[in-house]
Design brief:
heterodimer; A: 473 residues; Rossmann fold; Helicase, Ruva Protein, domain 3; 16 strands; 46% helix; 13% strand; B: 110 residues; Four Helix Bundle (Hemerythrin (Met), subunit A); 4 helices
Chain lengths: 473, 110
């Protein structure tokens, strides 16, 4: 729940007089009140920002209070609901409490009792949310693989906390490589459907002609090549989560079909006549700005509203550079296999200087690549691709220009480096020369460990240099 | 008018029993009540017992905001009569209801 919704209260009643009065009483206490005239309206509004509590009349036309209560708790089991009922409806109260109502109040309502009950309910809801967060932390359930302590990621984690205790449809948007599928998996794994399947479909990768079969399944013989009956993704996701990636790539025809499934919650296999239903939570993602796509007429507005019940935006990596170091280290740990243990400061600086247009995925790929080429305990600048070195404004070790000309070996000062190894050799030689063969001082300057230092000396054939430089002092 | 049911000696206006917090809302509440009162006769003619019972049920819970106990009593009677589909009782309640509501005037109303 976002901070500003911590005092949002839904008041649901078909009686306009009750809505008017409760709005006044609660607003005066500092609550932000949303009055709703029925259960349908309540469920429609039940997205972010979620209310801190709901005051719900039981006796309403249309979707009655009891059904509304059930559906609210299916979506969010810890959201406190106070039921409002007339004094002669004891059976209803008992049933409502069994369905998870936090408390009940009888009409005519007493202002003081209402405010006390509501205050308690809001506090209980707040604590329940906190307990749920702590349980995840204690049990190590957290959000595996999602790394970050930046303000942007803290906001994402807070939103995930809310999403994991609800069942709302989520639209994740963010640039390519920001971790949309990882987040979708986290929502599934930490939610009430975690025992069910997580079914991911990248719609951009499914050919248009096979899309229907992929999503709805097909009956044997329904088209050329349909030699067996195939269960579609909707059916596969029953009691679990269906993750549709790149929904912005759907053709208008597929958009219509998806909309129909979401509206009717039923579908048919290709070539089949039976109406099937499936109980799944829908999480979708797109790298496109779907609101803009709607404006441009490329995406259906009605479908957009169905998908974006909760809109979760993932920040680009360049917008949370403070997370780069932790992310890079986590990738070294994950992919390093114990051979490489870290990232040298010079290399880390390069990672920090780069803008990462491919976001976390590009960072992970870069670290993986560096781990392959690295032959040190730590990833070095030379292990990183050229595009990163080009982006690095400040090398950590002094550049040839920064070094005193007299300290530079004449032979290397005149020649340009042709390879990374040439560059590394020259830096090593410069450091040794500058410190007149003092190995410890050279190591400090290069910021490398003893083992690597001597390994590099051997590799570059500079083992004799220490003695020679010391003698020439 | 004075408080319905009170004698001439007690000259308190009917809205004196309204919760002071709700006085500002009274014109709006009264508008709703008058609209609903207009509907009552139509619902009775249409024999829409469900709607009559619902209206009675709602005012059973909200009559207190008007500070008029009689309204709560009539609302309860309307709900029961409608549930029993008792046309005579419904007609009687509606008659009393309309009479009561006509008497509920705000200070700035003629």
């Amino acid at each position: 729940m976002s901070e500003d919704s911590s005092n949002l209260i839904f008041v649901v009643d078909d009686d306009p007089n009750q809505l008017m009065v409760l709005d006044r009483w609660l607003s005066r206490e500092g609550y932000k009140v949303l009055t709703l005239e029925g259960g349908e309206a309540c469920l429609e509004e039940l997205s972010e920002p979620l209310p801190a509590a709901i005051c719900l009349d039981l006796n309403m036309p249309g979707l009655d209070g009891m059904t509304t209560l059930e559906q609210v708790h299916e979506r969010n089991p810890i959201l406190p609901v106070i039921v409002l009922t007339s004094d002669d409806a004891v059976d209803s109260v008992v049933r409502a409490m069994r369905l998870g109502a936090r408390d009940y109040l009888t009409k005519p309502l007493d202002q003081t009792k209402l405010l006390t009950t509501l205050r308690n309910a809001v506090e209980v809801g707040r604590l329940a949310l906190r307990v749920s967060q702590l349980e995840r932390e204690v049990e190590g359930r957290g959000y595996p693989g999602i790394v970050g302590s930046s303000a942007a990621m803290k906001s994402v984690f807070r939103q995930l906390d809310r999403l994991c205790v609800s069942d709302v449809t989520v639209l994740i948007h963010g640039e390519s490589g920001t971790g949309k599928e990882l987040v979708a998996r986290a929502i599934h794994q930490n939610g009430s459907r975690s025992r069910g399947p997580f079914v991911a479909v990248n719609l951009a990768a499914v050919p248009e002609t096979l899309m229907e079969s992929e999503l709805f399944g097909h009956e044997k013989g329904s088209f050329t090549g349909a030699v067996n009956r195939r269960i579609g993704r909707f059916e596969e996701a029953h009691r679990g989560t269906l993750f549709l990636d790149e929904v912005g790539e759907m053709s208008p025809q597929v958009q219509v079909k998806l909309l129909r499934v979401l509206q009717e919650r039923t579908f048919q296999r290709v070539g089949g006549s039976a109406k099937l239903s499936s109980d799944f939570r829908l999480v979708t993602a797109s790298h496109r700005n779907l609101e803009e796509e709607v404006k441009q007429g490329r995406f259906r507005q009605d479908l957009y509203f169905r998908l974006a019940v909760f809109d979760l935006e993932l920040p680009p990596l360049r917008g949370r550079k403070e997370d780069i170091a932790a992310l890079a280290q986590s990738f070294v740990k994950r992919h390093g296999g114990g051979q490489v243990e870290g990232i040298a400061p010079g290399a880390m600086q390069m990672l920090l200087n780069y803008d990462w247009p491919g976001n976390v995925r590009e960072l992970e790929n870069t670290v993986q690549r560096a781990l392959v080429v690295a032959n040190h305990e730590e990833i070095q600048p030379e292990d990183l691709p050229e595009r990163l070195r080009a982006a690095a404004p400040q090398p950590v070790v002094p550049s040839p220009e920064e070094m005193a000309p007299e300290a530079m070996p004449a032979e290397s000062a005149q020649e340009a480096d042709t390879t990374l190894e040439d560059h590394a050799r020259r830096l090593l030689l410069q450091a040794l020369t500058k410190h007149e063969g003092n190995a410890s001082a050279a190591m400090r300057e290069l910021n490398i460990g003893r083992t690597r230092f001597y390994r590099m000396l051997k590799k570059f054939g500079l083992e004799d240099k220490i003695g020679a430089l010391r003698q020439s002092k | 008018m004075t408080e319905p049911g009170s004698g001439p000696a007690e000259a308190k206006p009917w809205y004196s029993r309204v919760d002071p917090d709700l006085l500002e809302l009274l014109p709006g509440l009264l508008d709703n009540l008058r609209d609903d009162t207009e509907q009552l006769a139509q619902l009775a003619v249409a024999e829409d017992y469900l709607a009559l019972a619902r209206l009675g049920h709602n005012y059973k819970g909200s009559a207190v905001y008007f500070g008029v106990e009689e309204l709560g009593r009539l609302a309860r009677s309307l709900e029961i009569s409608a549930k029993n589909r008792d046309r005579a009782s419904i007609a009687s309640v509606i008659n009393d209801w309309q009479t009561l509501v006509k008497e509920l005037r705000l200070p700035d109303e003629p």
